[in-house]
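Reply to dn_fold:

You asked what the input looked like. This is it:
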Amino acid sequence: MDKIVILTGAGLSAESGLGTFRDEGGLWAQHRIEDVATPQGFARNPALVHGFYNARRAQSLQATPNAAHHALAKLQNSGKAEVILVTQNVDGLHEKAGSTAIHMHGQLDSALCAACTHRWPAPLEMDGSTLCPHCQTPNARPDIVWFGEIPYHMDEIADHLATCTLFASIGTSGQVYPAAGFVQEALYAGAETVELNLNATDISRAFHQHHIGPASQIVPDWVATLL
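and this is what came back:
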């Protein structure tokens, strides 16, 4: 059976109302990444970071999957191939659409204890007084991989890339590593590669095929060709 590894990024969820890093007027535009998405920023001002992720968590809970999420769920559940979804997104929309995904950058609906590494379902509102249910210390943080931290599940992802026959990158900027290097790993494994994005990226030349346009249009069309 063929193995398809699909990397998804913020561009997949943009049409569900969840902004990318570069959207004007969005949550990210109101803050410096250094202040809200780094361990140093959290150490300096945990209240600011908690407030930022509380807002993102509330926003994601209200969001619904778009046609691209549903198409990928249809592909994964079709049985036509082994489909591994690897996502940089933390919004949970893959799961809402009926998919199973490897979350390399964490999840908004999860909390992490910085003291004992225990994880639990995040409450809608977290702050500096939120206690870890395991060690009872106020060391709760969003279970999000920040800039400067190592993404989750990298060994598992590498194993899938080394054995895939098709690699697809959907809605990613091609600027954030290690994810931007996944296409090269897939090429080394002899896989076909396809990029689906709103625009060309810095790594577009590494792909055999390109589909340009809104994810809600090009992803269902591409999935239809596979089914």
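The chain has two domains: 1-17+65-105+151-227, 19-62+108-144.
Hope that clears it up.
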